[in-house]
Amino acid sequence: MLYDIEQIRKEFPILKQTVNGKPLVYLDNAATTQKPDQVINRMVAYYENENSNVHRGVHHLSQLATDAYESARKYIANYIHASDPKEIIFTRGTTESINLIANAFETFVNEGDEIVISSMEHHSNLVPWQQLCVRTGAGLIVIPVNEEGELDTDQFKSALNERTRIVALTHISNVLGTINPVKEITQLAHEMEIPVLIDGAQAMAHIPVDVQDIDCDFYTFSGHKAYAPMGIGALYGKSEWLEKLPPYQFGGEMIESVHFDATTFNDLPYKFEAGTPNVAGALGLEAAIRYIDKHGIENIRKYEDELLAFATSQLNLIEDLQIIGTAAQKTAVISFIVDGVHAYDIGTLLDKMGIAIRTGNHCAQPLVDSYGLTGTIRMSLAMYNTKKEIDIFIDALKKVLGMLR
Amino acid sequence: MTIQEQQKAIIEEFSIFDDWMDKYAYLIELGKELPMIDEKYKTNQYLITGCQSRVWLFAELDDEGKVVFTADSDAVITKGIVSLLIKVLSGHAPKEILDTDLEFLEKIGLKEHLSPTRANGLVSMVKQMQFYARAFQLKSNAKK
User: Fold this and answer.
1) Under an 8 A CB cutoff, do B78 and A359 touch?
2) Are residues A337 and A289 in the same domain?
3) Rounded distance, CA A362 to CA A32, Å?
4) Which residue segment(s) compose the domain that B121 sits in?
5) What is the pLDDT of residues A210-248, one digit of tens each?
6) Looking at the structure, do residues A157 and A272 belong to the same domain, yes or no?
């Protein structure tokens, strides 16, 4: 299939913008992606034609909204190969999804138990577990990464034992771009009957996701990093796990019947969806995934891999520049540092040239610390970026370094 | 020069730049004129938190009762901005510092650095300078 980059760029209205008089070059996609017309229009259409509260109403609009909301759930379940739509819980995003599980797991975690994560976790897949450990007296076991930014599966294996209650691991590192061997690690954990949560925040827009193939027990992602609106995301959980876990928040849709002395809770997935859900967001998320699917995730991946290879080779030509994260399996995220030049200075001057990148610790402070750094410069690509933009970025970077060195 | 006059002078100096690159190049140059903090104060105690780039700030009162600031940063643009702030505020009485409205940052087109989302800690930097001034003022009032 032809990858029609011109057409794709036209579908993202924000890309037409200029910043400081220069055409916008948006290379901060790991933070959030832009939204295509298809997503924006879907949300507008919802508010123009279907808006109503879901599940409760007997009237026409409520039925429309409910049907749309539930069919979004079904579509998303299907896309990530969940075995049933009820295994998809709509949340505000990855952070809420992980917090939900970390809170619900308090039931199963006792003093002396262990939770295993990796050192490349985003704060959102670190702090909820750390705080669970603080509350329960469990220990947080952190598997380090090597110089290239890869995990050692043997080290993972040796960290697992009968006290391990859960393994929480990112699918793709938001700093290093490393794609972790999540299937292999899930298998290792399952051999010891340990459940696994995969943080898929950086994966959805870039690689195929098949939760049954990975066989993980939980998978989390955010819409806004995959061309969908902010404030919507999902938690996938195997139904046998979700049935077992206690509710996380109370009220609204998640109840079945309420009496002053007791409440019975609704079935999956509603048990975990307290309050009026973000219906427009869910429909936007469906539209975004349909958009990805229309262009084909494998095509997108191939295209982004080409951009990644090109950007990497161009960056490697710059003197004293070091790429942080050189895993064999990685997506279109490049973190780097330049000897003697502060990341913040580079980011500030690049912004003046219309280029959006990110500097700092990227919400993964322990990882950045482990490289002995205070921050990196990170460029992260998406399906709408071009080689020409990388050229502009490289030229601008050279100019900026000329000013700063 | 009073604080007001100093602000005016800086605004004038910057008005000659119509190109952002020249402006930032000048800012980087200004960073080199920064009155350096004594190495012994480059500790966490004098580090301004909440910055992507690190800034250390120290203040003392001279014989005439004026506040003298010294600082350093690991990022050169931040250094330039601190240098400007020190140029304006250093060598003035605590009361003068506290009464000042720092309008020059906006006038020279560096207002964006005041936004808390920039995380370069300029806001914390200004606050810390005012905090020093207030502390010195309270101390001298107590003596009277």
Assistant:
1) no
2) no
3) 12
4) 3-143
5) 999 999 999 999 999 999 999 999 999 999 999 999 998
6) yes
Count of domains observed in chain A: 2
Interval B119-144 mean pLDDT: 83
Q: In chain A, which stretches have pLDDT less than 70?
A: 1
- Number of domains composing chain B: 1
Question: How much of chain B exceeds pLDDT 90, in percent?
Answer: 60
State chain A's mean pLDDT as an integer. Answer: 95
Contacts of residue B78 in chain A, CB cutoff 8 Å?
342, 344-345
Unique residue bearing structure tokens 């993980």: A216
Report the distance separating Cα A234 and Cα B106, nearest Å: 42
> So what's the pLDDT on residue B116?
52
Residue type, B11: I
Instruction: Look at B120 and A344 and tell me if their CB atoms are within 8 Å.
Output: yes
Using CB atoms, pick whichever of A360, A375, A404 lies closest to residue B76.
Answer: A404
**C-alpha closest to that of A367 among A125, A183, A201, A205:** A125
At residue A67, the 3 state secondary structure works out as helix
pLDDT digits (tens, 9 = 90+) for A295-319: 999 999 999 999 999 999 999 999 9
Q: Is the peptide bond before A269 cis (omega within 30 degrees of 0)?
A: yes
Among A293, A323, A352, residue at a domain's last position:
A293
**From B27, B30, B34, B51, the catalytic residue:** B51
| Interface with A, mutate which of B27, B51, B76 (most A CBs under 10 A) | B76
* B84-89: long-range pairs with CB below 8 Å, 24+: B84/B10, B84/B27, B84/B30, B85/B125, B85/B126, B85/B129, B86/B34, B86/B35, B87/B6, B87/B10, B87/B30, B88/B3, B88/B6, B88/B7, B88/B10, B89/B3, B89/B129, B89/B133
ipTM value, please give it: 0.86
Residues of A serving a catalytic function are: 363
Is the separation of the CB atoms in A288 and A228 below 8 Å? yes
CA distance A123 to chain B (A): 17
Contact B77 A349 (CB under 8 A): yes
